[in-house]
Amino acid sequence: MNFEYTLTIRTSSRLGAGTNAAISVVLVGTQGESAPQKLDKRFHNDFEAGAEDSYTLKTQDLGELLLLRFSNAGGIASDWLLESVHVTAGEKSWFFPHHRWVLGHSTSEVLEGTARLAHPVRSEREASARQEQLQARQRMYGWRAPEATAGLPGALDISEARPLPKDELYRGLVDGNYEVVIAKTLAAIKLNMPVLSKAWNGLVDIFDFFKGIELPQLANRWKDDYEFARQAVQGITPVHIQSITALPQGLPLTDAELHGLLSPGTSLAQALEAKRLFLLDFEILDDVPMFRKVDKEGVEERRWSPASRCLLYLDDTQQLRPLAIQLGRDPAQDPVFTPNDSQYDWLAAKIYVRCSEGNTHQMVGHALRTHFVAEPFVMATMRNLPDPHPVYKLLRRHFRYTLAINEGARKGLLAEGGVFDDIIATGGPDKGHVFLGKKGYLRWKLTDNQPRPDLERRGVLDPAVLPHYPYRDDALPLWDAFEEYVGGVLGHFYKTDAELVNDAEMQRWWEDLTTHGLPVEKLSCTELKRVSDLVEILTTVLFTVSVQHAAVNYLQYEHYAFVPNAPLCMRKAPPTKKGLIGPDDIVAMIPSKSQMLWQVSIGRALSSFGDDEEYLLHEGGWYEEYFTEPEVLAIRDRFHARLRAQRDAVKARNAKCEVPYTVLQPDRIPCGITV
């Protein structure tokens, strides 16, 4: 007896998603499989980008459908980006989400979309389909050799023989491609900037860069002390500020040096006891090699980014302002600068601190603690969890483009001769930026990416201690929303810890992760035996790739593009005596014209959103839906409701702020690391 199966096939709307290749399909069910059937309607252009095509196939009763096997006959531009398939037969229906390429001259099996753990097994055919999918993925997603990532998280092995899988490539990005943004920014600056006949003055002539592009808002207030302190709580790296009750060792400071800088009648000791002093400390730079290179003519070029530290004071208006800066660790040769010193001494000291912050941010806070620690989770997931696994469904949207941008960063920014060699202090022949990244990784654990323990460790969790801290106030509600969302989804599928222990696919995920990606000591548990531990780990991962990455990435143009605010290198050694710096000295200290040009362009590119960006709170819903279970969809809806409430709270607060903080507004936070 023949059955009729109707397949409704959606092709992605992305540029180049459609195909003119001959496509055939085999339906596989618990009671057998159909013969291959070509999908071709007369006088119809099948599988155009964004199209929905329906086909009716007749075959024997196949029982419950397990998978669809699509074959692509190939040809010119034959690759096909299949979004999903709905199949109906009478009153029965099945959903097959895919959201991946069916490459020319290849066959792809699309598994039925109900979220299921591997056990209990409905059929041996279903079990083998899951295993075959993983075997194919493991061939595409191989780990880089341990020696290639020594001292850093595990990463995808990419070579000419094993290129980046097409499913990980950027899809049809034009204006959103960061390389395109760099090129357009460089062109716009050069087109609109007049040829300067005078000597380059980076403090003044930098404004010429912005005749063809937008001027960062802080450009007209960057010298202000309150602006300097504001960036510590809502700038590009708002995770360094800590409350202190004693001066750091080696930082000599007296009440006489602070005359007029504290509240009337307040001594330094009293300010410390009242928890009104805060510290920014970039000691991690202390032994990091700095750029040093001699050219063919014997001319030496050097750059500096000192292991500086800065004290901030919470004044009577409840605002922070910088109080004292030391550009090194040695009290004998590293003086402490204060606002009581000359205006150029003080301005130079602040610029050096920003340079220290920038080098630390780029390699540790940004590249390492978001991009590179996320990659092992992408790898373990793609290699060990098949499409129907609920954890795969939970994570996949948040991993889109991460492998692509990480490889782009390694080749374009971090590699020898890359952009970082040209513009940052820790770049160059001695690879100080790589040394810095490894040093940061040595100190790091995954729990460091959890905002509440981190804020508590730094003593700034309590608003009574630090009243105005937008990063904290925005990040914590988002963490809580993620924790409820992840806990709800996992709790739906794992009713007991024993079910997690007996989930062979998740246990292989854990073994792969800890063997090749992150050592177990970097994680919050030594064995994956409790659902609560998995909730904590996955909440941290999703928070990291969305919220935390947004916090340390999307203000790069505003923060770095007006280069004197935050240069990524200084061309002169930090001053060791007071009273010797004038305006010409500062011009000689900050980056050159070409270095500034690159810093503006990179900052603009890395702050750009892709033209197909997907946000945590996305208008019209997420592009790709992986779950179909009503209970899980209700959990998702609750998550989005919390995000909407948080969006409204952020907007209400920003309406009252002189300088809004918008990067952690949920409808502006990408789901994952895409740039």
Feature tags:
Lipoxygenase-1; 675 residues; elongated; 5-stranded antiparallel beta sheet; 18 helices; alpha+beta
Question: How would you sum up this structure, described in words?
Answer:
The strands form four sheets. Strands 2, 3, 4, 6 and 9 form a five-stranded antiparallel beta sheet that branches. This protein has a five-stranded antiparallel beta sheet with strand order 10-11-14-15-16, with helices on one face. The protein has a four-stranded antiparallel beta sheet with strand order 5-1-7-8, with no helix packed on it. 45% of the residues are buried. A hairpin with a 2-residue loop joins strand 7 and strand 8. By secondary structure, it is an alpha+beta fold. The protein has a domain of 139 residues: Sandwich (Lipoxygenase-1), CATH 2.60.60. The model has no long low-confidence stretch (mean pLDDT 94).
List the helices and strands and how they pair.
Blueprint: E1 2-11, E2 23-29, E3 32-33, E4 37-38, E5 52-60, E6 65-72, E7 80-89, E8 92-102, E9 106-111, H1 124-140, H2 178-192, H3 225-234, E10 242-244, H4 268-273, E11 277-281, E12 292-294, E13 300-302, E14 309-314, E15 320-326, E16 336-337, H5 343-384, H6 390-395, H7 402-414, H8 419-423, H9 432-443, H10 451-457, H11 470-493, H12 497-501, H13 504-517, H14 531-553, H15 556-560, H16 583-589, H17 593-606, H18 630-654
Antiparallel strand pairs: 1-5, 1-7, 2-3, 2-4, 2-6, 6-9, 7-8, 10-11, 11-14, 12-13, 14-15, 15-16
Helix pairs in contact: 2-17, 5-7, 5-9, 5-13, 5-14, 11-14, 11-18
